[in-house]
Design a protein that fits this description.
6 helices, mainly alpha, three-stranded antiparallel β-sheet, single chain
Length: about 140
């Protein structure tokens, strides 16, 4: 029977995983903010709307893609609209559309290289240098 608690080695791996996640996400967030004045949620929304929706997307579809609750997305979209990064428009059948503005497109364009630099520096290079099988393990965890 498996113990209900993690042993010391398992706990050390769990803590290492959490710290690695925090380190990577913090580095990526800092680089994006410094390059573009976008938060990670701003970046997530703009990248999906621009890259998946060609600059406009039904708000409901965006919520599904991000796996966010409607209220969370609505609050974030309001903050972004106040900053001129996007607008919301009425679409067909009463569906709200999220539309990236020129300012939103420019901010995402500035953020993209910073995002890539941070991911490569803090995640990809160290992981590949130590164990290329790491990616196989991650893919088996996520089912991709």
């Amino acid at each position: 029977m498996t113990s209900p608690a993690l042993d010391d080695a398992e706990m050390a791996r769990w803590v290492a995983w959490k710290r690695a996640h925090d380190t990577v996400t913090t580095a990526v967030a800092r680089e994006i903010l410094a390059a573009s004045d976008l938060s990670v949620p701003d970046f997530s929304i703009l990248s999906r709307v621009i890259e998946s929706g060609a600059g406009r997307m039904p708000q409901h579809d965006l919520a599904v893609i991000l796996d966010w609750q409607r209220a969370r997305l609505s609050r974030q979209l309001s903050r972004m609209a106040d900053r001129g990064l996007l607008v919301r428009e009425d679409g067909r059948a009463g569906r709200r559309l999220v539309v990236a503005t020129d300012a939103g497109r420019e901010a995402l364009e500035a953020a993209r290289p910073a995002h890539a630099r941070a991911v490569r520096r803090v995640l990809l290079a160290p992981a590949e240098a130590h164990d290329p099988a790491f990616w196989t393990a991650l893919q088996s965890i996520t089912g991709t």
